[in-house]
Amino acid sequence: MGMQNALLSVFPPPAYVATPSAGVDISGGSIKWAIFSGYGSHTKLGTYGEMPLPQGVVTSGDIEQEDTVVEIIRTLRMKHRIRHVNACLPEKKAYLYRVLVPTGTTNLRAGVEFDFETHVPLPPAETIFDFEPIQRTDAGTVVAVTAYAKRIVNTYNAVFERAGVMLHSLEVESQALARTALGPTDRDKVVMMIDFGKHTTRIAVAEYGVVAFTATLDVGGDALTAAVMKHFNVSEPEAEQIKNEKGFLMGAENKSLVEALVITVSVVKDEIVKHFSFWNNPTADELPRKPIEKIVVCGGNANLKAFPEYLEGALGVPVAVADVWVNAFSLDEYIPSMQFSDSLEYATAIGLALKGRTKSIW
Predict the structure, then answer these.
(1) Out of the domains of life, which is the source (predicted)?
(2) At what angle do helices 236-245 and 255-280 cross, to 10 degrees?
(3) Is the pLDDT assigned to residue 18 strictly greater than 50?
(4) What is the mean pLDDT of residues 272-279?
(5) What's the mean pLDDT when you consider all of the chain?
(6) CA-to-CA distance for 347 and 192, rounded, in angstroms?
(7) Contact status, residue 362 vs residue 209, Cβ threshold 8 Å
(8) Model-level pTM?
(9) Does position 4 have pLDDT exceeding 80, yes or no?
């Protein structure tokens, strides 16, 4: 298969009127899915759900036990009549970078290929890449390039094929997240997205709607839950409730909880500050970057009370919890069956399911 055909099979362009596709998000701990019915202004949430994965099935983005994943996806196909899927590739396995294609270059792909090996430490024959223009300048076009080892792409392709599901597209996780978390006005800005999950925390920067930087931290909300369980000697459900209802609310009655949470949250905050500073302070050898103007938080642990205010105080820019329905429908006209607190956990799956459903969804 030639490079062009390989890319089209993995990164096909979105179609306005396409066969309804489920969004399927495969992570280390579970497989989440979401599917919408209707198109455009008639879009409504259909079925959604989560299937836990035993430890070791997916490790650091690698599907180690393909048969287990195939069986789950096959079950989804049969139970929920899922035939077509948009899915994501693991961020940890991506090579993502920005490059300037000089003015006068008539073929952007050729411009990206010119210094591809400078940025990706894999032989070109063993990689598949895609790119997205970010902005045009006097010097040329700045593009974001995403590359994966072919073995990663082939494994994900094979899993869906064996399950009898047609794979419409694969993309980096954070681009699906951007499709969900960024509203229309955010596409004119530089926005940091933080997906504060159970086991990991994903950080991404979207430059005018295009993901141009990603990082993954091996710490998530389960460490917070464990700290609350230990400190208050309560069960996991009780710890989750305490964490989400009180969180970082300051006050004498909440002092012990804040003290229990702050050690773990400080680790996450310090890493976010580090990446925030990295983006905002490019070196002389790097392409110029517009500073981050806003931060959007999602993931199950975005429900942590007062967490956005805590980050806002550390970073000095507005921090908001994502509205994952902003590009799907108006909550004034339709209320989905999914609770808001749950929707933050499904942000990636929702973004995948939205791909190509309306003219405004990229």
Answers:
(1) Bacteria
(2) 70
(3) no
(4) 97
(5) 89
(6) 15
(7) yes
(8) 0.89
(9) no
- Residue 119 near residue 171 (C-beta atoms within 8 A): no
Per DSSP, the residues of 105-169 read -S-HHHHHHHTHHHH--S-GGGEEEEEEEEEEETTEEEEEEEEEEHHHHHHHHHHHHHTT-EEEE
Q: How far is CA 272 from CA 25, 297, 315, 331, 345, in A?
A: 23, 12, 9, 31, 19
Helices and strands (H and E) in the chain: how many: 12, 15
CB neighbours of residue 342 within 10 Å:
15
How is 238-307 classified by DSSP, letter by letter? HHHHHHHHTTT--SGGGHHHHHHHHHHHHHHHHHHHHHHHHHHS--TTSPP-PPP-EEEEESGGGGSTTH
Q: What is the spatial distance between Cα 347 and Cα 122, in angstroms, rounded to a whole number? A: 31
How far is Cα 243 from Cα 229, in angstroms, rounded to an integer?
10
| Encoded tokens for 17 | 């009127």
- The model's pLDDT over 199-245, given as tens digits with 9 standing for 90+, comes to 889 999 999 999 999 999 988 888 888 888 888 899 998 988 888 88
Domain spans of the chain, in order of start = 184-322
What's the Cα-to-Cα distance from 320 to each of 114, 293, 309, 362, rounded to whole Å? 39, 12, 9, 22
303-322 pLDDT, tens digit per residue, is 888 889 989 999 999 999 99
Q: What is the DSSP letter of 348?
A: H
Specify the amino acid at residue 162.
R
